[in-house]
Write a structure and sequence with these properties.
Blueprint lengths: L1 H16 L3 H14 L6 H11 L5 H14 L8 H14 L4 H7 L15 H4 L49 H21 L7 H16 L6 H15 L3 E2 L1 H16 L10 H26 L10 E2 L12 E8 L2 E8 L12 H8 L3
Parallel strand pairs: 1-2
Antiparallel strand pairs: 3-4
Helix pairs in contact: 1-3, 2-3, 4-5, 5-6, 9-12, 10-11, 10-12, 11-12
Length: 359
């Protein structure tokens, strides 16, 4: 089976590239040798294919969709038919046999979840860390994040940030480097900081909020709550945004907070964790919508589309837009792209680093 897949890959590479099978085989052997034999022939063939700019993902996606479309609902209880369907789906490598076997038994009752991203996204080696697709809304990574200074310190005393929580922060090496740096800075702050005075009233208020769902006997479950939040974000803060829809979205999120979320209940620690996640997601959704309202321009870099402000990256909007909550009110501000090189900082990266690195 493996040899058969390898030969098929070589044939498809040859057809797409115009190279001979012998030349492709030499490239594959060279790749195996370069990787010290730590990769299979089929894996090396896939690597060579990618290096030649050849992707079979669209073809696999189309085959998967055709398989699902052609499925006979009346035969879903026939083990032989299911087996044949599994074999066909397995060859596409997009839908696993387990999903077909376990979900498609009752086609009218169950729903098969298939990839929602465009096929070309999956061809990237790091699609999860790339620019989010239309159905996703990102608070951090490519879409924004916490603003910090050269010590990776936020404007909240004692809070340091790293990795994807930073504005524009992605990838594992970045997360590892900034995490180590922020940890060192946070430690230095903690050593010199005054002993904090605990506000018992604030602690008791927070404990009451956190444990409220487990004290209720019935109400809204976390799954229904999450589905409602997702629906609002998809309908009112999707790919194309406008002032009207964003304000409606904020209205509906506030409605959920005051109504359904205030009646959410949990039967165990797991459900409590999920319920609290939903409450946080309401806040994050509001953050995203307020930030989207504040940026009154479309941006190709941010994959941000305002239908009421269609101009792409106008010069006056090439800046950071900041939002913060102050006395219960959202405050909007702005910072230039190179704020870390402006006073009170120096105009040199090297000088700033030497002043702050601590070595």
């Amino acid at each position: 089976m493996v040899e058969g897949n390898y030969n098929k890959i070589v044939e498809r590479i040859a057809k797409a590239s115009g190279l001979s099978k012998e030349e492709i085989a030499r490239k594959i052997e060279a790749k195996i040798a370069k990787l010290s034999g730590l990769i299979s022939k089929e894996g090396a063939a896939q690597v060579v294919s990618a290096e030649l700019g050849i992707s079979f993902e669209n073809e696999k996606f189309d085959k998967t969709i055709n398989i699902l479309k052609s499925a006979d609902r009346n035969k879903m209880n026939d083990p032989n038919y299911i087996s044949a369907l599994i074999e066909s789906a397995d060859k596409t490598s997009l839908v696993s046999p387990e999903i077909i076997a376990n979900v498609m038994r009752n086609f009218d009752k169950d729903m098969l979840q298939v990839p929602v991203m465009p096929p070309e996204i999956y061809s990237s080696g790091n699609w999860a860390g790339s620019i989010p697709v239309r159905q996703w809304r990102e608070a951090f990574a490519c879409g924004g994040g916490l603003m910090v200074d050269w010590d990776l310190r936020t404007n909240l005393e004692g809070l340091y940030a790293a990795g994807a929580q930073l504005a524009g922060g992605v990838e594992h090496p970045f997360a590892a480097a900034t995490g180590r740096y922020a940890g060192r800075k946070a430690f230095a702050y903690a050593v010199k900081a005054k002993h904090p005075v605990i506000n018992r009233q604030q602690v008791e208020k927070e404990k009451k909020r956190v444990y409220a769902p487990v004290r209720r006997k019935d109400g809204m479950g976390w799954k229904e709550l999450q589905a409602g939040i997702c629906r609002i974000m998809q309908d009112y803060c999707g790919e194309y945004k406008s002032e009207g829809t964003l304000k409606l979205g904020l209205k509906w999120l506030n409605s959920i907070r005051e109504s359904e979320a205030s009646k959410a209940y949990a039967r165990n620690p797991h459900e409590l964790m999920r319920t609290l996640e939903c409450l946080v997601r309401i806040t994050v959704g509001e953050m995203i919508m307020h930030a989207s309202l504040a940026r009154q321009a479309s941006s190709q870099t941010l994959d941000f589309k305002r239908i009421d402000y269609p101009e792409i990256d106008p010069p006056e909007w090439k800046k950071f837009v900041t939002t913060k909550l102050e006395h219960g009110e959202v405050k909007v501000g702005e910072l230039p792209f190179n704020y870390w090189l402006l006073p009170p900082n120096t105009p040199s990266y090297e000088e700033n680093y030497e002043m702050h690195c601590g070595f």
